[in-house]
Specification:
By secondary structure, the protein is mostly helical. 77% of the residues lie in helices and 0% in strands. The protein contains nine helices and no strands. The protein is elongated.
């Protein structure tokens, strides 16, 4: 144990990057650090969820109307479908490319740098997916306020991107184990 610590101190003095350790990373994950990740996820999910609840409330209080231009809602639905498929794919690509082990190794505190990199990557991935979810919800609210959903509830399919976003947030909700797994797969590339 002492030999390892002496080797690490000598390597730091000589500016030799040390290999990262999953165990040491896990020890830097304090409950407060994990809670920060969880709050970010919950906040992103809460905003879209409240908007969805408003749409449902408006739907149940609205009356059918034929005055709204269905063509506009159809066009927005098509644009939303293309945007949502693109956003969910792009979010995965961007997420994977935001990790760089070399920039972490060159940092004075590689584990704090890894946490920052992970936080940024998760935030960007969630924000891109949330953008697609909000686009779909906006199309829904346009259809609801126009009274279209009373006669044609198929326009609620635009909320599918919100449902996918919600499911993704729930499945990737950060815990100490999931963050350690993310460190292992994205930074250590194991």
């Amino acid at each position: 144990m002492e030999d390892r610590m002496e080797h690490q101190l000598l390597a730091k003095k000589m500016n030799i990057p040390q290999p990262l350790s999953e165990y040491e990373f896990a020890s830097t994950l304090t409950p407060e650090t994990v809670r920060t990740f969880q709050i970010i996820h919950a906040a992103l999910m809460a905003g879209a969820s409240m908007f969805f609840l408003v749409i449902l409330m408006l739907h149940f209080r609205s009356i059918p109307s034929e005055s709204m231009d269905v063509e506009t809602v159809n066009m927005l639905s098509i644009v939303h479908a293309v945007f949502a498929m693109s956003a969910f794919g792009v979010s995965r690509i961007i997420f994977g490319r935001m990790f760089s082990e070399q920039s972490i190794l060159n940092s004075p505190d590689p584990y704090s740098a890894a946490l920052g990199m992970m936080r940024g990557a998760l935030l960007v991935r969630m924000a891109v997916m949330e953008g697609a979810a909000f686009f779909g919800l906006v199309v829904c609210i346009i259809a609801v306020t126009g009274g279209i959903t009373q006669t044609e509830p198929v326009y609620f399919l635009n909320a599918a991107s919100y449902v996918l976003f919600f499911v993704n947030v729930m499945m990737t909700f950060p815990t100490k184990d999931s963050l350690t797994q993310l460190f292992r797969t994205q930074i250590l590339k194991q």
